[in-house]
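Q&A log
Question type: sequence-to-structure
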Amino acid sequence: MRTISSLCRRVVAAAFAVVLLVFLVNATLLGGVILSYGLRSQQQGTLPLRSFSDRFMPGEDGLPVPEPGAVEECLGGCAFAMLLDPGGSVLWRWQLPASLDHPYTVGQVAALSRWYLDDYPVFVYRNGFGLLVLGMPPDSITRFNFYMDSDMLGALIAGFVPLLLLDAALILAVCLWLGWRAARSLRAIGQGIDALARGGDVRLPERGATAELARQLNRAGALIAAQKAEIARRDAARTDWIAGVSHDIRTPLAVILSGAEALEREASLPDAQRRLAQQMRAQAERIRALIGDLNLTSRLQYDAQPLRLAPVHAGALLRETVAAFADSPSGEACDASLELDEAAGRLVLMADAALLRRAIDNLLYNSARHNPPGCAVFVRAQRILQGSREALRIVVGDDGAGYPPDVLAVLRGESIPCPPHILGLDLVVRILRAHGGEARFQNAQGARAELICPAASPAPEGSP
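Response status: OK
Response body:
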C-alpha cells in the first residue's frame, strides 16, 4: 500500500509541476510577445518621432527645417511627415499627400491626435516650432485610444500576486482531486492483491478506470478459491484413505506379528525356520513402523497432530532412546554410542518427548537398516546458542555408505524424475519443524543428520 501512496504522491506532484510549468511558459511567451511588439512599436513610433523632432532648426527663410540627413535617418519607415504651427498651418512637409496638405483647425488637430488621419496611423509630438505629425503607412500598425481608471489599475496591480496564488491553489486542488480518485481505485486494487497474497477472498467493485484490473483480480481470486477447495478435498480424501488403510491393515498385521513371534519361540522348530520367523517378525514390525510414519507425516503436514509440549530433560531423553535402540535386534548388530557433553545433558527442552524420540529412532534404525551388520552408529549432542537463546544440537550418524545422492537432492527440495522413498527422513524434518527447529542432512564419512531443537528458555546473561 505504501507503494501505491507513493505513486499517487508522485503523480500529483508531477501534474502540479507540469501545470505550473505550462503557466510560466505561457506567461513568459505572452510577456515576450508584448515586450517585442511594444519595443518595435516604440522604435517605429515614439522614439523616431522624438529624435526627429529635436533635429529641427530655422532655415534661411526663417521657417523650420530638419537637419541635413535627419529625414533619411529617422523617417525610413514612415509614409509622410509635417510640422504644424500653433495656428494649424503647415510649416514643413515631407511626402505629404495633396489631400492632407491644408491648414488644420483645432478640431482637426484634436481628431488626428486620436492617432488616425485619413486611415494613416499618426504620432504627434510638440517641439519649439509647433506640432510634428508623423504618418505611418495604412494597416502597418494598430492604434487604440485606451484609458483606465487609476484606482482600477492599482487594484489590478495589487491583486496580481493574490491572483497567481489563487490560480496555483485551484490547480493544486484539481490535481489533488484527480490524485484522490486514482488513489481510491488503486487502494481497492492494492487491498485485493494483499488479500490474494494472504489467500483470502477477493471481491472488488468493478467500476472506474480500474474496472478491467478489478475484474481480472476477481477472476483470479475465484480461480484460486476453487483450486484451494479442490486441494482441500483431495487432501481430506487422501488423509481419510491413509487412516482407513492403516486401520484395516492393523488387525492382519497383528496376527502376522503374533504368529511370527510364536514360531520364533517354538523350540521344536529347526533353527532355519525360527530364523525365517524372526525375519517375518522384523519385516512385519517394519511395516507397522512405516504405517505409523505415514499416519504421523500426514497429520503433521496438515497440523492435525497435536503437540503435547512439556519440559523434557535432553540427557535423559537421549540416553533412553539410544539404550532402547542398542537393546533392539537392529541395535545389537551395530556399535551404538552416545556422546553427551555436560551442558547438553542439563538442557531442558519444551518438546513432545514421544515425537522427538521418534525422530531420533528413525535416524538410528535408518542407519542400521541401510548398512551392513557391525557398522558404527553414534549420537552426539551439545548445547549451542542461536542468538540469545539456547538450543540442542544433535548429530546422528554412522560410518556406512551415506545417503544416496537422490535422497539428498529430495531433502534439499530439488525435483528429480524418480524420487526415492524418504518417508522416515521426511518425518524427521516435519517433527523438527513442528518444534521450531530444523534438520539438515549430509554425507561425511557416512551419513550425518544434524537436528537443532530450541531450549525451553533464553540463555542466561553471561553464558558462553
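Response note: The CA atoms of residues 63 and 91 lie 7 Å apart.
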